Structure formats: structure tokens, C-alpha cells
Amino acid sequence: MSRTLDIPFVRQHFPMYHEPQNFSGHFFDSAAGSFPCTETIDALAGFYRNNKLQPGNPFSPSDAGMEKMLYSKHRWANALGVQTHEIGFGPSTSQNTYVLAHAFSQWLTKGDEVIVTNCDHESNTGAIRRAVEQAGATVREWQVDAATGLLLEEDLSKLLNASTKLVCFPHASNVTGQKTDAKKIIEMAHAVGALTLVDGVSFAPHAIPDVDALGADIYVFSLYKVYSVHLGIMVIRQATQERLPKQGHFFKDVIDVNERFVPAGPDHAQIAAAGGVIDYIETLAAHHGDANLSDSGGPNGTVRDACEFVSSLWRQHETELVRPLLDFFKNKNAARMLGSFDADTYRCPLVSFRPNVDSCADVAHMLIDQGQLVSHGHFYAPRLLDAVGIDSQSGVIRISMAHYNSHNDVAKLIQSLDSLL
Ligand SMILES: Cc1ncc(COP(=O)(O)O)c(C=O)c1O
């Protein structure tokens, strides 16, 4: 696709870029939390202004509040290619996986095996490892390549067997930027009859996943990294909901993720506002749309069409953003970059590196002084850093971008990196 993303138009939808007092410099910390789009902010404020009371009563504006929540859920279900009862909104991905771990601990038995990686954010592995042990089952660790930090499918195939009940893995790493071939991994897991839990937190901000096409049994991600509110979305397909012990109150019998697997009380306003980002995606699709809008995306197509179309615009732009950074690190001996140098395949616009001489903290502070807003640490993936021989306490510097970053941002960052490394 030749159409390029209109960055000034994109930035009109992010108030953080309009107010000079908000920040100065170039923002490179979106993997920690993205800027919210205007549509999210307006929907949240609108709910607080007009609907903030217990929703679902047959009087106004309580009934309208419930409608907004259901609409939001419906929009996200369409975006992800699943049924409305197959998605739930919880307080965060960590909390959602914690509850899932509880369900796994009741479901697994001695002799069962569960595969987790040492690449994941701790939220997709820690509670699950504990749950497996509690059930008397066995944890098998799919380990990254020690030189690059990349997960290799050939290593997974050695771990899979008839006892494997569950495979938990990231759709993208929040440290190396690696995108895994989730569809293939899920097929490998299904071939031995195992369920799959995919952490899409680092993937979803760059492409809205088609969970149905991927075949994932459970797919989780955090909306506050997808230009939206501070909630976690959890997809659990119907067949998997029926297999796992429910974690909701005894009187909640409906097959629905929120009823069965999100015991926290719902944050009504945030759920109602969660769909705002879908409006933004449709607006982007319409702005960039082509003659085939009704077939390939945009307001005349389905929500999923718009997501596909906009995700491809994001991917193309982000690939061009990350390419010069990868070239820079390929030719720089003063730092070790993790992950792949190939911008075109299996990569998010996220680059982590460790300077050879100065500490990460020092270099990160110097970058920030120069207006390059990066972050440093282990990003809750200390197992990964340990596995590639980096002290997780000193960590790495992470440069993470989203589709609203510009080529100018990257050019300025490379100038600063060149002067400091
Ligand atoms: C890859 C990844 N998975 C999971 C999480 C946990 O998400 P949450 O903050 O919603 O608990 C994060 C948070 O940074 C993450 O980066």
C-alpha cells in the first residue's frame, strides 16, 4: 500500500501535542503508556458529565450509561474479530492474568505441563508459574537465544508434548521489539491439544489484532497503551470459558468474560470510553481512505476492515521510523542493541540497548536533558535481561515509538545518540 500516514492529522487527535506546557522534546516512551486520543478523552469526560451513576436502571441517564458500556464492548469485539461475550474489561493486564492464573491452578493437575517464556513481561509468567506449582504440574521454560534475546520456534517445538496443557507467550516483546509469529505458535500448541495465552500488550498499539484469525484461546492487552483508557482487555473464547473454572460470584452463570473471569467491579466510565479509540481508527481510515473503502476498510466497511487498513498504515510508517535507528545501532560499537536489526520482519518500533561504558541511568538522563524522552530499567522483564547476560538491575535504555512519532523525532534522537555514545 502506497498511502502514507498523515502525521499532522494524526497529531490533531492527541492533545498532548497541542499544549506546549505538557512536554518538550521528543516522546519515546509509548510502550510504557501511550498518549490518549481526543475521542477517548471526550468519551470519558462525557460519561462523567452525563452518565456517572449506577448504569442499567430503567431510568435516564442510567440506561444510557449502560448502553454506552455495551456499545463499547461491542465495538471492541468487532475490532478483534470475536463475539461480545468473549471479551472482558479488567483493571489491567497484570490483574487479568492474575485471575486467570487462579483459574489455571484449579484446572491443572499433576503430570500436566505449562510452557512459559523468559522473554515475557512478568505479568504473563510470574503468577502463572506459581499457579502451575500450586497445582503440582510442571513449568517448562521456552528460553530466548542468549545472543539476541529472540524467541525461536525450533526451541518451542522441543518442549511441546502430549502433556502440554497451556502455552503462554508474548505477541511482541516489550524489550527486544520482536513480534512472534503468533498464528504459527498457536497452531503448534493446538497440535498437541494445548491452550494458548497470548500477551498482546506490546503488539496491539501497532496493529489491532484479529484474534479470531490468530486462533488464540486467550488474548490479553492493555488499553492505556492503545491510545485509550487505563484498563486491560481480555479475550477468552467461548470454548475456553467453558473449560476453565469460573472466578466470578456463584450466581453469575452467563458465559461472558466479565461475569466469569473479572471479579473486580467494572469501571463504568472507562469501559464506556474504551470504544473511543475505535472512532479514532475509523476517522483515520476515512481520512486516508481509497476508492475501495467499502471493501478494504474505512467508514463504509466493517470495524475490522478499518482496523486492518489503519494497522497497515501504522505498520508502514513505524517500519520507516525504526529503520534508521536499527542502521545506527548496527554501525555503533559503543552499545549493544537487543533483538533483530531487520526493520521489515517481526519487529515493533521499539529498540533497547545498553551502552558499553556509561551506565544506562547516566545515558538516559543525558538523553532526556537533550529532549529525548526515553526510559531505562528492566521493564518487568528481568528474566530476559539475565538470559542475555545483562544485569537486570542496571537494565537497558528503551526507545519506544508509536504511529504519532515523526521522522524528525527519530533524526533528532539519532543526533543525540551519536553525540553521547
Ligand atoms: C508486554 C507487557 N505485558 C503486560 C504488561 C502489564 O500490563 P498492565 O500494566 O496493564 O498490567 C505490560 C506493562 O507494561 C507489558 O509491557
In the predicted model, the low-confidence regions spanning at least 5 consecutive residues are 295-299
CATH topology of the largest domain: Aspartate Aminotransferase, domain 2
Beta-strand percent range: 5-15%
Query: CATH class of the largest domain, please?
Result: Alpha Beta
Polypeptide structure, described:
The chain has 421 residues and is α/β, with parallel strands linked by helices. It folds into two domains: 7-36 and 304-420, Aspartate Aminotransferase, domain 1 (Alpha-Beta Complex); 45-276, 3-Layer(aba) Sandwich (Aspartate Aminotransferase, domain 2), CATH 3.40.640.10. Helix content is 42%, strand content 14%. It contains 17 helices and 13 strands. Strands 2-8-7-6-5-3-4 form a seven-stranded mixed sheet, with helices on both faces. Strands 9-10-13-12 form a four-stranded antiparallel sheet, covered by helices on one side. β3, α5 (126-134) and β4 form a beta-alpha-beta unit. α12 (276-288) packs across α14 (303-330). Residues 295-299 have low confidence and may be disordered.
Topology of helices and strands:
Elements: H1 7-12, E1 26-27, H2 38-50, H3 62-80, E2 87-90, H4 93-107, E3 113-117, H5 126-134, E4 138-142, H6 153-159, E5 164-170, H7 182-191, E6 195-199, H8 211-214, E7 218-222, E8 232-236, H9 238-243, H10 257-261, H11 268-274, H12 276-288, H13 293-296, H14 303-330, E9 335-337, E10 350-355, H15 360-369, E11 372-373, E12 375-377, H16 382-387, E13 396-400, H17 407-420
The chain binds pyridoxal-5'-phosphate.
